[in-house]
Specification:
Order of helices and strands: EHEHEEHHHHHHHHH
Number of domains: 2
Distance between the termini: 61 Å
Structural class: mainly alpha
Strand order of the largest sheet: 2-1-3-4
Largest sheet: 4 strands, mixed
Number of helices: 11
Shape: elongated
Radius of gyration: 22 Å
Mean pLDDT: 91
Helix content: 55-70%
Length: 275
């Protein structure tokens, strides 16, 4: 594998996801052993042309020979093009570049709610990633739709435990939780509304992914509804624990976790009573 030499990738020290994938670049040999550093630890004299706010939003790659700095998806293209030169034409194909740029921005501007920073590191540095409401709303909608789709399919495995509903029931439940919790966080701490809702939908989406193994294996397994109900309850318990953990990271206490669980109980009671 060809190593990209004389380049330094600058990651966000407060972003666990950024630390993991840039370390993978180094350990796989795509970058030199000294080819990564936190942008927060680089002084201005070492790289005077670095746009620090942009580096907080989009990962920066510094060419140590020329001083040129690239950002975001272009940085990643440069890293991957060295060991995989066959991909270079693809990285120059404008529709692909546009699509990957949008996908990168979608993940980058939501990275703090996908994998949150710890309490000890959050906010330690002056420069923080910019907040983009459009990308946060897009994240909430996408995660809500995917979660609702998986739950809708999974509900068919709970025959006899939960009454069957219309195909849009899970979509309404997921959307209703966004609205319900949005109102509650707006009352408790309006300044953390979008951060909390992003974390909440990450938990919901992760929970839906944990249901996928049982859902995908169901056609080949002759298991009872009780098994799938138990699997669902186990996933729900893990989601509650994760909700409590993330609420602690956001310094919201137990109030949001209580309302999160209360909504689900009320929805279940409504389904059982009305169907």
């Amino acid at each position: 594998m060809t190593t990209l030499k004389n380049h330094l990738i600058l990651f966000d020290a407060e972003c666990p996801m950024c630390r993991v994938y840039t370390r993978a670049f180094v350990e796989s040999g795509m970058l030199d052993r000294q080819g990564r550093a936190a942008y927060q630890e680089i002084n201005e004299q070492a790289c005077p042309v670095l746009d620090r706010q942009r580096a907080a939003n989009e990962i920066a790659l510094v060419n140590l020979e020329t001083g040129e700095v690239t950002y975001g998806v272009q940085s990643l293209f440069t890293v991957f093009a060295a060991p995989f030169p066959v991909l270079k034409p693809l990285f120059l194909f404008l529709p692909f570049v546009w699509l990957m740029s949008r996908l990168y921005a979608f993940i980058s501007y939501n990275r703090r709610v996908i994998v949150p920073a710890s309490i000890t590191s959050e906010g330690d540095f002056n420069i923080q990633p910019s907040f983009r409401l459009d990308y946060r709303i897009a994240y909430l909608l996408v995660s809500c739709l995917f979660t609702a789709k998986i739950l809708s399919d999974y509900s068919l495995l709970l025959k006899g435990l939960i009454p069957a509903g219309n195909p849009f029931r899970e979509y309404m439940i997921c959307g209703g939780q966004l609205l319900f919790q949005g109102i509650i966080i707006g009352v408790l701490d309006r300044s953390k509304r979008w951060e909390y809702l992003g974390n909440m939908m990450t938990i919901s989406f992760a929970g839906a992914l944990l249901l996928l193994p049982a859902l995908l294996l169901a056609p080949w397994l002759n298991l009872s509804s009780a098994f799938y109900g138990g699997w669902f309850l186990g996933v729900a318990a893990l989601m509650l624990l994760e909700h409590i953990r993330r609420s602690k990271l956001l310094q919201l206490g137990y109030g949001m976790s209580f309302s999160w669980a209360l909504y689900r109980v009320l929805v279940l009671l409504f389904i059982l009573i009305t169907t």
